[in-house]
Task: inverse folding
């Protein structure tokens, strides 16, 4: 894709509004960073003679932040709205810190690597621009996805849902308006989101909220 | 048998030869092969002795308390064991009469034994034929719902002994401290099958824990047990050599539950079954919170010269599967 972009040039006269033509398909691929997800804390407790607890050690678990890949296909529904389907893949580390061990003050940090897939869809709404030829187009959007997480060894799967809201900008780097050219435009998409995950790997059963950010290159046909 | 006393059961406790045996169970050798002692037919019929009631505990109270304890073991959803109250008997526990009898006996000579379980075993098959539990009436007992100061809770002790009656050995999921005058005091336990009882006046031992549930389910699995839980197996080594008798605890960070076993042969192999699916923290510790002969035959050499250690990876357990090949390395103290 980088080669395609460098082979193109843009003039002000060629530039077209990013969301201008309903029915166009847009593909993009890039990287996504997903923030850490706290999974909760549990103590290894013994029961005492009074019914209270005696802590053997404590544990705190997190799904650590990770960088992965994301691909997306979008279709223009109207001049200002895209409907999109997306898939992402990342390998976050599930880490449990063991502290306050009654017999081993050093504690421990133990981990495993999780393979995480998100497949979903959503809507992006482009904030209206007064200038028809604007090359920077902010948008806001939201979506939902099926979450599939495979523990190390791929012997155990956790599934759930992820919902995101956020916004970003699309930067138009190149465009073509000539009728016989298949590729109409290319550019960079940058966005930031708040992601709410339900189920999946969750030690306390609660939904988790975390940040995510993505950068990708897109081409429109 | 509660460790507050000790040894009667220890003489029945031998070590399984195969690492596939999780938990400590009673075993015997049949034709050179280690066989786990268990009931081959259920429900296990038990009788309550109508003799030797003690102050504060009538025969009816006794029957009700042990009935509740039997009901707890039977209610374990992943175990197929079942029990049936067969009636009162004029016999006493300890008599070889073909009846599994629970009752009091006055044994002031056993001044540290609250209760004890013995067995009649078919040594050609390992089948349990009879098992009696005696409660030492030289101690003060209670069946009060909230316990009574200065009296031992009969239901708690019955729960432990019924674990033995069913074929379970002791669990080491507990912490103790040495008493000045000798013996140990329990600081905390997370298994009814821990060998040392809580003190008098408490009912904290009336509830089965994850380790007990895994143990009884491993011994008498129902169809759902194998499909719904998983296991971890592997070896424990020190200085490159396998060690016997290391205590291995699988901790589920999602629930806080613990299930444990030992490395049970000279290859240092262990197997923990009945684990909930998910990642587990594995902790290896020396057996230093109870007398070793509460767990193993005195002729066996148990290595306790190593530091507590954690596996550096989470061990993922899948439902219906065994996460084998886990290698835990410990270092000398």
Result:
């Amino acid at each position: 894709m980088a080669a395609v972009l460098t082979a193109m040039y843009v003039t002000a006269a060629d530039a077209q509004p990013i969301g201008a033509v309903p029915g166009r398909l847009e593909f993009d691929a890039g990287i996504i960073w997903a923030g850490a997800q706290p999974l909760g804390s549990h103590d290894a407790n013994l029961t005492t003679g009074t019914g209270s607890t005696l802590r053997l050690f404590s544990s705190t678990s997190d799904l650590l932040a990770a960088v992965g890949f994301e691909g997306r296909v979008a279709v223009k529904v109207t001049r200002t709205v895209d409907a999109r389907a997306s898939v992402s893949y990342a390998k976050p580390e599930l880490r449990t810190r063991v502290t306050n061990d009654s017999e081993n003050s050093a504690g421990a940090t133990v981990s495993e690597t999780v393979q995480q897939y998100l497949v979903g869809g959503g809507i992006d709404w482009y904030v209206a621009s007064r200038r028809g030829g604007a090359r920077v187009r902010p948008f806001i959007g939201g979506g939902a996805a099926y979450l599939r997480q495979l523990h190390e060894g791929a012997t155990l799967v956790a599934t759930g849902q992820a919902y995101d809201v956020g916004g970003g900008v699309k930067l138009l780097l190149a465009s073509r308006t000539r009728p016989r050219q298949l590729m109409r435009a290319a550019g960079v998409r940058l966005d930031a989101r708040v992601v709410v995950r339900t189920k999946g790997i969750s030690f306390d059963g609660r939904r988790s909220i975390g940040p995510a950010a993505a950068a990708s290159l897109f081409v429109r046909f | 048998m509660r460790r507050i006393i000790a040894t009667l059961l220890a003489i029945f406790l031998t070590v399984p030869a195969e690492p596939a045996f999780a938990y400590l169970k009673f075993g015997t050798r049949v034709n050179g092969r280690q066989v786990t002692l268990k009931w081959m037919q259920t429900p296990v019929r038990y009788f309550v002795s109508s003799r030797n009631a003690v102050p504060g505990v009538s025969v009816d109270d006794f029957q009700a308390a042990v009935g509740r304890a039997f009901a707890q073991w039977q209610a374990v959803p992943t175990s197929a064991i079942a029990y049936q109250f067969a009636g009162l008997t004029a016999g006493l526990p300890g008599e070889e009469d073909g009846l599994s009898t629970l009752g009091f006996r006055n044994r002031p000579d056993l001044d540290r034994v609250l209760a004890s379980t013995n067995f009649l075993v078919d040594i050609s098959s390992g089948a349990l034929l009879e098992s009696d539990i005696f409660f030492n009436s030289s101690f003060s007992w209670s069946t009060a719902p909230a316990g009574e100061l200065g009296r031992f809770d009969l239901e708690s002790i019955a729960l432990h002994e019924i674990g033995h009656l069913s074929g379970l050995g002791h669990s080491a999921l507990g912490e103790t401290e040495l008493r000045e005058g000798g013996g140990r005091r329990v600081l905390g336990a997370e298994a009814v099958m821990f060998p040392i009882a809580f003190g008098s006046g408490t009912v904290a031992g009336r509830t089965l824990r994850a380790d007990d549930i895994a143990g009884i389910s491993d011994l008498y699995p129902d169809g759902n047990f194998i499909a719904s839980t998983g296991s971890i197996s592997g070896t424990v080594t020190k200085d490159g050599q396998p060690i016997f008798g290391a205590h291995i605890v699988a901790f589920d960070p999602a629930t806080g539950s613990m299930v444990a076993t030992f490395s049970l042969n000279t290859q240092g192999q262990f197997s923990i079954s009945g684990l909930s699916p998910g990642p587990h923290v594995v902790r290896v510790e020396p057996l230093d919170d109870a007398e070793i002969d509460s767990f193993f035959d005195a002729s066996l050499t148990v290595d306790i010269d190593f530091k507590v250690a954690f596996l550096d990876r989470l061990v993922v357990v899948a439902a219906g599967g065994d996460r084998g090949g886990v290698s835990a390395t410990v270092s000398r103290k």
Q: What stands out?
A: The helical segments of chain B are 59-74, 154-166, 210-219, 223-228.
